[in-house]
Write a structure and sequence with these properties.
heterodimer, A: alpha/beta, Rossmann fold, seven-stranded mixed beta sheet, five-stranded mixed beta sheet, 14 strands, about 20% strand, B: six-stranded parallel beta sheet, about 10% strand, binds thiamine diphosphate, binds magnesium ion
């Protein structure tokens, strides 16, 4: 089975979709001549030309809005935002237009577009360049938000997102770009709105998305060595949120830890915990535990940044304490 | 301030147009009829609001009828239109049945947006009105992208993007003009300068109060027209639209026209001086056009009365249509969240449990 990096999975999917459909085009800052800030679009300008791979000025509001307008006429733009932090400049177009145009006009025009953007801290980029603010978009009906954690999912979900008729925010992660994984040739189609049980288990459910879904798998591996059978659920889709899969798991295991790179208060984990409490209340043997970033603007200094971000150890700590509370250790 | 106001910022350079007597009488009749229709339509909208048949925000085109009719007459049916929230007249003049426009105000299923949009959010695929937008400046990047899609496909449609004077101060305006020039897009940006945002004058909001000049920062052609003169508006728009179509180059047209009433139907506009209100009344484009037609002896008074009455009757018919149209069924509440069906979507009313 071919092994690809997360970056290569994205790049090859963009290339395949550009070949497959003339209506697909890429648009963003520095994606053409410069080949992308994180080199996801390497080689694509040379192969497809500047009509299909369009460099823009530093005008996030302008070109995100332009992509929406082009999508309204039936093109399928794939926007790259350098990082999710800069999406704040375009949030009006995303929230007030991409998310609203289908419903607000009574279903007359869809907005078939994708906005790709990496989030993630841990790169010592400081407070303005290290945020995990996907919640802002996951909050909004009309948007779809997906967050793959593996190269195979990156490929499958990007393909689905490009072929979907709604605006899909596609969350990448700086820490995952170089991660390698198996990507089968006959990759099954991914469905938006579906979580995945990435490791079956019986003692505790560990839940994550994007980088933290990978971290949760690491933690499960370590717990296995301690004789604990942890089930891991990768959310994959933040909107819609697949509550059924979460609740089904916790109804069996009776306890859960949800791990997220964003801030705890009002974060994605809060919604997950609330959903579990509503759907699995009678099965819970302990409160749902949340592992999330410290609530500070992320500092630059490595020691401080490391302390602020969740890690395998923080997931393990929360898992062990939860297992202890339910008497499974 | 003194030096700026000395520049006679709102004086319109009236574009030459052929003498009224040389215009096609049917065209002139159609302009007058549409202007009278829009005038009456907006008066009926205001009335519907006070009768609580219309809710939300409601901004009228009263005083801007010449700009509305002149610009829309210059477009091909296949040209695209994006507007702000002050768009009832544009929707009608772009070819949407006035009954459907009024039905949208009434929140009925027969409305342009099936009752989902209201006054600020009219849309019609067939007429190619690609939306009224309530976020000031929000329509500019969208319109720019629509023009990009036209060039992407090698089409010959033009996009007209309407906005108010206050909109020229927001970032989206500047980003969109820059992109439109860089990408050689067939788009005309129409700035309707009524000298007011809500209550803030152009002088108090725009460091360059001669708004058409703002285009020059992007090496875009900009010009100003008397927005109360329907023939001048039509001539200028037609020229810029055809230039956009044949040369794929953007332009900005500033139409100076007074707002006859408040910012929205609930605004008594107490901030306006008596002089300003009187000047707006004196500049009434409908009165002016009718007088010009009479002076040029194109139609006699009886004929003019008939045309105006036809326009007014069409507006009254629109109200009757809206009033008898059905309200949306609550069962349709979840019909328009996503175009592609999606798993796990929550269809719950406020008190429903998730599980
Ligand atoms: C981004 C944004 N800010 C503020 C408002 C509130 N608002 C609605 S209309 C308006 C004035 C706009 O003036 P102008 O562009 O001249 O248009 P006009 O109403 O005169 O046609 C304001 C401030 C808004 N809708 N959107
Ligand atoms: Mg104004």
């Amino acid at each position: 089975m071919p092994v690809l990096s997360y970056r290569e999975a994205l790049r090859s999917t963009l290339r395949e979709e550009l070949i497959r459909d003339d209506n697909v085009f890429l648009i963003g800052e520095e994606i053409g001549v410069f080949e992308g800030s994180y080199k996801i679009t390497e080689g694509l300008l040379g192969e497809f030309g500047d009509k299909r791979v369009r460099d823009t000025p530093i005008s996030e509001e302008g070109f995100v809005g332009a992509a929406i307008g082009a999508a309204m006429l039936g093109l399928r733009p794939v926007v790259e935002l350098m990082t999710i932090n800069f999406s704040l400049i375009a949030i009006d177009q995303i929230v007030n237009h991409a998310a609203k145009i289908y419903g607000m006009f009574g279903g007359q025009t869809s907005v078939p577009m994708v906005i790709r953007m990496p989030g993630g801290g841990g790169q010592q980029l400081g407070a303005t360049h290290s945020q995990n603010i996907e919640l802002y978009y996951a909050f909004v009906p009309g948007l779809k938000v997906v967050a793959p954690s593996t190269p195979a999912d990156a490929k499958a979900l990007l393909r689905t997102a490009i072929r979907d008729d709604d605006p899909v925010l596609f969350l990448e992660n700086l820490a995952l770009y170089n991660v390698k994984g198996e990507v089968p040739e006959d990759l099954p189609t991914a469905e938006i709105g579906r979580a995945a049980v990435t490791r079956p288990g019986t003692d505790i459910t560990l839940i994550g998305y994007s980088r933290m879904a990978a971290v949760a798998l690491d933690a499960a591996e370590k717990l296995a060595a301690e004789g604990v059978s942890a089930e891991v659920v990768d959310l994959r889709s933040l909107r819609p949120l697949d509550r059924e899969t979460l609740v089904r798991s916790v109804r069996r295991t009776g306890c859960a830890v949800v791990a997220e790179d964003d801030w705890l208060t009002y974060g994605i984990g809060a919604e997950v915990a609330a959903s579990i409490s509503e759907g699995a209340f009678d099965h819970l043997d302990a409160p749902v535990r949340r592992v999330a970033a410290a609530e500070v603007p992320l500092p630059y200094a490595k020691s401080l940044e490391d302390a602020a971000l969740p890690s395998v150890d923080s997931v393990l700590t929360a898992a062990r304490e939860t297992l202890h509370a339910v008497g499974r250790r | 301030m003194a030096t700026r106001t000395a520049r006679r910022r709102n004086e319109a350079t009236t574009i030459d147009h052929a003498p009224i007597s040389s215009e096609d009488p049917d065209t002139l009749r159609q302009y007058l009829r549409q202007m009278a229709l829009i005038r009456r339509f907006e008066e009926r909208a205001a009335q519907g609001y006070t009768q609580a048949r219309i809710g939300g925000y409601c901004h009228l085109n009263l005083g801007e009828e010449a700009t509305v009719v002149g610009t829309m007459a210059a477009l091909h049916p296949t040209d695209y239109l994006f507007t702000n929230y002050r768009e009832h007249g544009y929707a009608i003049a772009k070819g949407i049945d006035p009954g459907r426009v009024m039905a949208e105000l009434y929140g009925r299923t027969t409305g342009t947006s099936k009752g989902w949009g209201g006054s600020m959010h009219m849309f019609d695929t067939e007429a190619r009105l690609l939306g009224g937008y309530g976020i000031v400046g929000g329509q500019l990047p969208l319109a720019t992208g629509a023009a990009l899609a036209v060039t992407y496909r090698g089409g010959d449609e033009v996009v007209l993007c309407q906005m108010g004077d206050g909109t020229t101060n927001i970032g989206a305006f500047h980003e969109s003009l820059n992109l439109a020039v860089l990408w050689n897009l067939p788009i005309v940006f129409l700035v309707v300068n009524n000298d007011l945002g809500m209550g803030t004058t152009v002088d108090r909001s725009s460091a360059e109060p001669e708004l058409f000049k703002r285009a020059s920062a992007y090496r875009m052609h900009g010009e100003r027209v008397d927005g109360a003169d329907v023939l001048a508006v039509h001539a200028a728009t037609a020229r810029l639209v055809e230039r956009a179509r044949t040369e794929s180059r953007p332009a900005l047209l500033e139409a100076v026209s007074k707002r006859l009433k408040g910012h929205s139907v609930v605004d008594p506009a107490r901030y306006r001086s008596a002089d300003d209100v009187a000047a707006a009344r004196d500049a009434d484009p409908l009165v002016r056009f009718r007088a010009a037609l009479a002076a040029a002896r194109v139609f006699d008074e009886a004929e003019l009365d008939t045309v105006v009455a036809e326009g007014r009757a069409a507006a009254d018919d629109a109200v009757a249509f809206a009033a008898k149209s059905p309200h949306p069924d609550v069962a349709t509440l979840f019909d328009h969240t996503y175009a592609t069906p999606v798993a796990s979507v929550a269809r719950r009313l406020p008190a429903d449990p998730i599980f």
